[in-house]
């Protein structure tokens, strides 16, 4: 069967295949269950644990969870027994320590509950099967540490590593094969020497140091608060594409690299701006609805679903949770969506730029800080100008950006996100903060020691600076609440009312490292602010309002360069940012170098203690190695597609035209049109052949000249191979526009983007 026939059959299958339907859970009386009745039914929650354990055992576990004591063997064994019974009652046959190695994905190794007990009787040896799960099996497991990215920290002969149960994240069961299920134990991953080999350990450490610093600041400002714990909250808006799985199977580039390495835009894509928030296609709606049901059972609070800007692009977003749990839930959501999409003959694409020329995908991380009393420390309240606590925490975030913006750029840098940053759907490599007109006016007024100006918007005269009323001037419509700030969709780091939205994070990456870096930078800034407050108040026990204002004014002036309210995509901003001294980091390899520069390395190691020097250097090498490997894989994939599919198709089409022209000429019929097309096609084929050879040479040189300097290798991939990939693509796309459709071997953008 020809490639063309495969394409057409895939189209027919997509249009005529049987639609998958599932039955929504119902109560005994036949009525549908409320979502709140399904929520968390497959999670071994604290409430479930409390019912399953004796009170002294449960109390002992709570003390350990709060960091007050170690988990003893009796408690661990009791929890292991209780969770095994609970899981097996839900069909579990295996358990796994579920962790986050530095691959961008999660990892798991399944072990059975089944054990064999051998006893010896006068009649001989007797084997008895039992189901067993001990406290030691719950607490830790031992995967091969040498087979995961370690940046040189582990070698093949240093293979031992440990996964350790993260007691702050609840265990859960997921569906397995043949009606069974698997118990998942959220875990961290460390080496034999105790070095972090994963994404989660750093996040948990950063949460703790931020809690200590933020609690100190709150209690210094408000002695009566007695805050013991501060935590970060996170909401991750997950964007993704869904394409027909049969079409996907015919695209080697999508299967191997996650993005299309060739392909022309269809005449209609996103330019009419009609897909965003449009009607969700029925197959997609069934898929997302099933995803939401699975997530409900897993205690993942999916709140929002909608079409995104590009055709075939969508988004789901959860309710905010504590950051480490939110990260677990985001990664779990991605995994569940992958499985559910498969059931609907769809394929989910998490690559930041799977299709050239249309909107890319991000993972907007909405980040805030809250106390153990439930107070959001980034809530400006009605009068932010007198809310000194809010102002100091706001300025701590701005100071973090000003001092360590390059680290945030590192945290979102990858070969895939590079296609999206600065491409009119994500900010460029300049990290700045958007606050909105009102907050900017508050900070400016405090800095200049003057009254705050009244805002007057002609078309909405009832807007108040301290208040939030908006009159739409239509009598049938009610007055509505108005946020303190507008939204700036071009800002990489925007304040959106009571949180910051880190918009530059890539859709397929784990949020762990970006949030870890942000937590660390803010911790360093809070520590600096506390030091300034203590110096300002002198021998007093607590700072006065004048002391607080003095420190606030100082940090308003210091952080002013990082505040920007305009268009982050504009050329004017690039020039203005340079005047302000803000770094414009244009490539991932350049960004990686900042991770090991003294200022940032010191903050992440000795100042906050989040990473050891070895752990940080390991991550530096992993980032560089991954970047170069990604580029090489893309290049080799593109070479194969062009050499084995596109060029042969173009030559076959050219042969068909030549034979047609010769046949016409033989019977005395004018063959000018065929000859014209042949003449137009010849230079396109020649160009593609030439660029194909250049790409091959560039890849060979990069591979042959690999050095121990991982950053130099990554930089060489960026400088030589990535441009060669782009040149081959340009030549291949020109051919796609000229070769007859029946000869083209790959599903086109029209079929990929518009067949769901």
From TrEMBL:
One of its GO terms (biological process) is glutamine biosynthetic process. Residues 206-646 form the GS catalytic domain. InterPro entries: Gln-synt_C (IPR040577), Gln_synt_N (IPR008147), Gln_synth/guanido_kin_cat_dom (IPR014746), Gln_synth_cat_dom (IPR008146), GS_Type-3 (IPR052725), GSIII_N (IPR022147). It comes from the Eukaryota. It holds the Pfam family Gln-synt_C-ter. Residues 93-194 form the GS beta-grasp domain. GO terms for molecular function: glutamine synthetase activity. Belongs to the glutamine synthetase family. This is Glutamine synthetase/guanido kinase. It comes from Coemansia brasiliensis.
């Amino acid at each position: 069967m020809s490639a063309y026939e495969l394409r057409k059959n895939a189209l027919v299958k997509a249009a005529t295949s049987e639609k998958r339907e599932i039955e929504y859970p119902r109560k005994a009386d036949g009525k549908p269950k409320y979502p709140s009745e399904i929520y968390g039914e497959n999670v071994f929650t604290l409430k479930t644990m409390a019912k399953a354990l004796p009170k002294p055992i449960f109390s002992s576990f709570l003390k350990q969870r709060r960091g007050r004591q170690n988990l003893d063997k009796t408690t661990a064994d009791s929890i292991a027994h209780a969770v095994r019974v609970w899981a097996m009652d839900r069909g579990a046959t295996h358990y796994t320590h579920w962790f986050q190695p530095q691959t961008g994905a999660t990892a798991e190794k399944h072990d059975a509950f089944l054990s064999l007990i051998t006893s010896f009787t006068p009649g001989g040896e007797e084997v008895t099967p039992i189901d067993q799960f001990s406290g030691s099996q719950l607490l830790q497991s031992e995967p091969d540490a040498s087979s995961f990215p370690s940046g040189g920290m582990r070698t093949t002969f240093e293979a031992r590593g440990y996964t350790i149960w993260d007691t702050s994240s609840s265990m859960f069961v997921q569906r397995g094969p043949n009606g069974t299920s698997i118990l998942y134990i959220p875990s961290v991953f460390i080496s034999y020497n105790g070095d972090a080999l994963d994404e989660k350990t750093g996040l948990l450490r950063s949460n703790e140091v931020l809690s200590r610093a933020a609690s100190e600041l709150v209690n210094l400002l408000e002695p009566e608060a007695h805050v013991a714990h501060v935590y970060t909250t996170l909401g991750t808006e997950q964007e993704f594409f869904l394409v027909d799985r049969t079409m996907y199977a015919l695209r080697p580039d999508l299967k191997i690299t996650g993005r299309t390495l060739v392909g022309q835009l269809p005449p209609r894509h996103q330019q009419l701006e009609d897909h965003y928030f449009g009607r969700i296609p029925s197959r997609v709606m069934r898929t997302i609805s099933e995803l939401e049901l699975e997530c409900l059972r897993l205690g993942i609070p999916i709140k929002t679903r909608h079409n995104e800007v590009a055709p075939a692009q969508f988004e789901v977003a959860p309710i905010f949770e504590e950051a480490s749990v939110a990260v677990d839930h985001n990664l779990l959501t991605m995994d569940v969506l992958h499985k559910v999409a498969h059931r609907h003959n769809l394929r989910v694409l998490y690559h930041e730029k799977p299709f050239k020329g249309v909107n890319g995908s991000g993972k907007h991380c909405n980040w805030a800080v809250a106390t153990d009393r439930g107070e959001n420390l980034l809530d400006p309240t009605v009068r932010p100008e007198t809310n000194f606590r809010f102002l100091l925490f706001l300025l701590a975030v701005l100071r973090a950006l000003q001092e360590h913006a390059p680290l945030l750029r590192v945290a979102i840098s990858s070969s895939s996100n590079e296609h999206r940053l600065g491409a009119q759907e994500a900010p460029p490599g300049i990290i700045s903060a958007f606050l909105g007109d009102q907050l900017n006016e508050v900070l400016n007024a405090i800095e200049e020691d003057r009254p705050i100006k009244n805002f007057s918007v002609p078309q909405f005269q009832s807007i108040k600076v301290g208040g939030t009323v908006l009159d739409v001037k239509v009598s049938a419509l009610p007055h509505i609440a108005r946020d303190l700030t507008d939204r700036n969709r071009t800002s990489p780091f925007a304040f959106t009312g009571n949180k910051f939205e880190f918009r530059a994070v890539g859709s397929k990456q784990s949020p762990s490292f970006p949030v870890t870096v942000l937590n660390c930078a803010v911790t360093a800034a809070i520590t600096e602010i506390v030091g300034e407050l203590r110096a300002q108040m002198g021998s007093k026990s607590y700072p006065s309002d004048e002391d607080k204002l003095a420190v606030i004014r100082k940090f308003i002036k210091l952080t002013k360069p990082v505040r920007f309210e305009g268009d982050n995509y504009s050329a004017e901003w690039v020039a203005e940012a340079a005047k302000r001294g803000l770094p414009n980091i244009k490539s991932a390899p350049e960004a990686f170098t900042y991770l090991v520069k003294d200022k940032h390395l010191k903050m992440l190691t000795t100042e906050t203690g989040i990473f050891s020097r070895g752990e940080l250097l390991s991550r530096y090498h992993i980032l560089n190695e991954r970047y170069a490997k990604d580029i090489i894989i893309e290049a080799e994939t593109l070479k194969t597609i062009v050499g084995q599919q596109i060029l042969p198709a173009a030559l076959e089409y050219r042969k068909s035209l030549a034979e047609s022209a010769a046949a016409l000429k033989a019977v005395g019929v004018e063959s000018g049109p065929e000859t014209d097309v042949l003449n137009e096609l010849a230079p396109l084929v020649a160009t593609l052949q030439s660029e194909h050879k250049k790409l091959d040479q560039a890849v060979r040189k990069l591979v042959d000249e690999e050095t121990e300097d991982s950053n130099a290798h990554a930089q060489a991939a960026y400088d030589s191979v990535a441009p060669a990939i782009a040149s081959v693509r340009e030549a291949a796309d020109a051919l796609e526009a000229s070769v007859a459709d029946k000869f083209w071997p790959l599903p086109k953008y029209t079929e990929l983007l518009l067949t769901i």
